[in-house]
Amino acid sequence: MSYTAWILLTGSLVGISCGLVGVLLILRKMAMMADAISHTVLLGIVSAYLISSSLDGGSMLIGAMLAGLLTAWLVQWFESTGIHSDAAIGVVFTTLFAIGVILISTSVGNVHLDVNHALMGEISFIPWNTVHLPVIGQIPQATLLLMIITIIVIAVIALFYKEWKVTTFDPALAASLGIPVLLMHYVFMTLVSVTTVAAFDAVGAIMVVAMLITPAAAANLWTDKLLTMLIISAVIGAASSCAGYGIAIWLNTSISGSMAFATGILFVFSYLFSPRHGQLAKWFHKPGEI
Amino acid sequence: MIRLLSLFESSNFQWVFISTILLGMAAGMVGVMSNLRQQGLMSDAISHAALPGVILAFLLTGEKQLPVLIIGAGISGLIAAFFIYGIEQSTRIKRDAAMGIILSVFFGGGIMLLSIANRSGGGQSGLDSFIFGQAASMVRSDTYVMGGLALLVMLLIFVFFKQWKVVLFDPQHANMMGINAHLFSSLYTFLLVLVIVIVIQAVGVILMAALLIIPALSARYWTHSLLILFLLSGFFGGFAGAAGTLISSSESNLPTGPFIVVTSSGIFILSLFFGAEKGLFHLKRYINKTALQSDGTSGGDEK
């Protein structure tokens, strides 16, 4: 496959996996948890590096997963002491991120770990770092990781589709049906963390936030059905990646920045033209008519 | 200790030290208002959204003067705040999702512009520092601008203290008392954006939220009075600023922002556990509890 094709494939995989997870995130009113986890993942990666002194995908994934769970658990605990969720998230992610930056600046030195890189990502380098697989041949490491994560995300959502639906829309009903709501919460947070770290290596923290929240919010304007929303969100995510790459080439600028910006363009389009909840539809129909 | 004292002899360190204290205080006080409005993370969204404004200001004027960049950041931050409220009010999207959208899309746009600015030449270190903060590189003129604005923020809070009190706790009542709640709401957004754009320079975009949220949250564990809340939060913020600057200056190449944040998190943990009003283990509650228990046993006798 050509260089461009690998980048488009990687970007689309980020769009699909984040788009799917994002729908559940915004329906559970936890959008800013995505922002928090995408930053605290840094601490997980640094700690994993300090402990294992290697930068292979496996230890990074485990570190990120643990950091994501720690974030979710701390936020949950602070909320249970009566702190508003906004403030709880703010305290936890800034503190963990600050510890991560301090660890990098004191002990890790200037190895591969670079905060700048972590935030902005470097998707343009991805096709160069390949592994060899039987049958398929050479495949970029980050792309392979994203493929696996995307499959896991689809599988987890599909297998427990009913449970996700009930715990998302009516946690009280879910609890009375005997669904372990808290366990589902932590499974979901794990899913967010692994998706984040896989996407993070490719496109950086900020773009992960864009991909997790914006396509899902846009899809939320198009439909009321969960399954349709998941599909639309994944499509918007993948389309934003490709459009973003096009913009980046056209303007000769940052690829991940453009991909994040492209999600915004598609959101504005949905905001204006969605037949259900778009602004134009609202202007043409008098209130009460819908 | 001698090394710390010798730090103060460096005039540049003095300016940095004064700046971080003033910025910490101003951020702590504005944080009280945003925490009471349960909008802590607005600061995170606005600080990310300030980036495109900063870069555009640079691209348009070709200057890296602090006042120019602050104006750019301020305009873009206000637009972001306006969009967030707009999305929240005109669609079914919740505020936290609206914040996430604006934060990431604006920041993405900022990164696009930054890479264009980097390509078009000229040393860009000043622009990169907007993302990660560079307290240590502040000079005297920066202190005048930032310190002056920080003092203005604190002044506006204290001059209108009575109005803020009503507006924050009971906006409906405010209108009856002849206070224009809408005006003060706008003034609050203005103060929030102002304090964010000046603090970004010191601690960077990502850690900005900590300076607003953490001191104000910590102060809540010590008092119920709004005035003391403002003073205490300002004190915590200033203390964290001072301590963080001292620690990071004790060795070369340590970042300032993260140490300010970790210091204020330390204050938060202490407050959470030992705070005199709401702390988890505070003495008063312990005494009350034992008093209740002894009451309970005497009550049991009466039964």
Sheet with most strands: strand arrangement of chain A: 1-2
Mean pLDDT of chain B: 83
Estimate percent helicity of chain A: over 70%
Strand-residue proportion of chain A: under 5%
Helix-strand makeup class of chain A: mainly alpha
Specify the CATH homologous superfamily of chain A. Answer: ABC transporter involved in vitamin B12 uptake, BtuC
Number of domains of chain B: 1
How many DSSP helices of chain A?
13
Distance between the termini of chain B: 64 Å
The top level CATH class name of chain B: Mainly Alpha
Order of helices and strands of chain A: HHHHHEEHHHHHHHH
- Characterize the biggest β-sheet of chain A: 2 strands, antiparallel
Query: What percent of the residues of chain B sit in helical stretches (DSSP H or I)?
Result: over 70%
CATH fold-level label of chain A: ABC transporter involved in vitamin B12 uptake, BtuC
Characterize this entry briefly.
The complex is a heterodimer of chains A (290) and B (303). Chain A is mainly alpha-helical and 290 residues long.
